[in-house]
Amino acid sequence: MDTSQRWIERLFGRLQVRYGSGWNSMWEGIEPEAVKADWVETLHTVFERNPTAIAYALEHLPDRCPTSDQFRRICNLAPLPEAKRLPEPPADKARVAAALAAIVKPTPAKQSPAEVCAAGLRKKLADGMHLTLPQREMLAACERVQPPEAETFAGFNPIPADALPPGMRDGMAEIIGDVAA
């Protein structure tokens, strides 16, 4: 007797106990071996992939005797066993440091973002690269921005009026003057 046949014998025994005469009358007039063969054929993938699903289905039986298809559907509701995971390999400190160095490039102290941007664009020009029109406009805008002489209001640097959109220039001059005072 192969493994599937042993499972079916045990399963039919459990279902016989659970459903009693209802189980017997369900298969009345059908050859018992034919019924068992149908159940083996229907449940073979459950036996192969997740045999614990049979236990799940037995714990979640319906009130009426299930057919082999209904029982398989109950089995398919069972959660899959969790696969064992390999331990995470330790990080190579040199590779991590190199990756971080490539990502994190500290800006020189006391340089504004405009100065850093302008320096990068000037370097491209010095390396013989041609700047696109938006890059040339950005370089010109960065060169127009003058960093304030001294930081004011706990590290707040006001935006120069000429860097503001035209509609904001008049009103902001008064506000910036109030903050700086």
Tags for this model:
single chain; 181 residues; mainly alpha
Task: Give an account of the 3D structure.
The chain is an all-alpha fold. It has three domains: 74 residues; 43 residues, no CATH class; 29 residues, no CATH class. The chain is built from nine helices and no strands. The longest helix has 18 residues. The mean pLDDT is 81.
* Number of structural domains: 3
* Principal-axis shape: rod-shaped
Assembly state: single chain
Rg (C-alpha, Å): 38 Å
Summarize the amount of helix as a percent range: 55-70%
State the low-pLDDT regions, or none: none
Q: Give the rounded overall mean pLDDT.
A: 81
**Distance linking N and C termini:** 96 Å
Give the total of beta strands.
0
Quick overview:
The protein has three domains: about 5-75; about 105-145, no CATH class; about 155-180, no CATH class. The chain has nine helices and no strands. The protein has helices at about 5-20, 20-25, 30-50, 50-60, 70-75, 95-105, 115-125, 135-145, 165-180.
